[in-house]
Input
Amino acid sequence: MLVKTFGSAIIGIKAIPITVEVNIDTGIQFFLVGLPDSAVKESHQRIEAALRNNGYRIPGKKIVINMAPADIRKEGSAYDLTLAIGILAASEQIKPDKVGDYIIMGELSLDGGLQPIKGSLPIAIEARKKGFKGFILPRQNAREAAIVSDLEVYGVENILEVIRFFNDEGTLEREVVNTREEFYAQLNDYEFDFSDVKGQENIKRALEIAAAGGHNVILIGPPGSGKTMLARRLPGILPPLNLHEALETTKIHSVAGKMSREASLISVRPFRSPHHTISDVALVGGGSNPQPGEISLAHNGVLFLDELPEFKRTVLEVLRQPLEDRRITVSRARLTVEYPASFMLIAAMNPCPCGFYNHPDKECSCAPGVVQKYLNKISGPLLDRIDIHVEVVPVPFRELTDARSTEKSDSIRKRVVKARNIQEERYKENKGIHANAQITSRMLREICVIDNTGHELLKTAMEKLSLSARAYDRILKVARTIADLDESENIRPDHLAEAIHFRSLDRETWGG
Output
């Protein structure tokens, strides 16, 4: 007897339906075809043990299982339940009438229990698109898949529940999630707040400008000056995720297997902080079985690189293209996958190996030329993609002990959202551009117009402070954002002056 069941494969962050055709005939052999990997081939032993331990069996006949389309490699253990239900239906141990109406996925334990799978959200989205009635999957992933409306999602803990469901001997409890209610309930659920930070008003202002314009930032200062503490609070002042961004972000985390059991929809902007020993593949994604990297997990959020010069040069250089294109393409011999990677980069570093160059109280113990050599670990092309450079100085004792409360993240976020709304309106005709940091050089000349006074100020600054040529465009973009925060139609000289202040690493005299 021939029976078809349905599963799904993940390519990038998209799902492709997989048809599992099970044919049982006279004979005693078992064939599994359709480009399965080792984990899929090993399913035979897991299925046999799970069925036997629950009072069922694999029939002692010739079984041929084809996983179509045959040119797509089937990877992982998530097809166990799909194959098992197909075998039971083809051997008439369960009724085959309804099995074709559902996407069925799950990894089987030897006792018939189900282990969680990756990518349940994109699978559910594709299942609804293809007209399936429902999706049967492990209970741990049910809330995540239930985000998708107009699709029956059933979370199960054991294969017996699925068998009884198809035999009309029992019912499955449908998982229901009110997507909008959950999304808006957790929208402002941030752990860190700027009101916890004493002093550092200049750095807070720089991060507010960065959030308002989507600019990348580098913080440079001695150990203990608060670089990491400030960086962790940046997501709390970024504009809230909209539902589309939340869904896209959740899909990436789902494919990477980063969703917790109780999670349904990611409603706060991600903050990723990889260690400096990370490899380039782990950062940008890829591998023999391509997976999203840290830059994709930071999509619509913040990627924080602490101790920037300690990262391998090759790791930092692979960041350059995603910073410009806001996506990463991973090419392999058999397939090409694309992951979104629209993130804000915030980097932090010490000014020198000992950490105390330019410190107000402590002496730098580094030899002559060492400071510049240390800074040269970061290439010019990468620095060119970072708009705001800020020197962080230690907080004086009197500010640390000041009992007065400082401004909360909520009030800063309101100003940021207002500035972003101005930019959304300005760039509504330009596809893919939502913030000042994304504008092209051609657009820069039209949008960032300065008067004669501003022109003279910029000219003088570049000459006196030895600013490099690459600083010119960056200063104009940041000045445009500062003007938006002031709700000013034109870029004034004071906006330019503040933007110039945030280009410290472009000064040729910095670092000796």
Summary: The chain has 22 helices and 18 strands. Residues 45 and 110 are 9 Å apart (CA to CA).
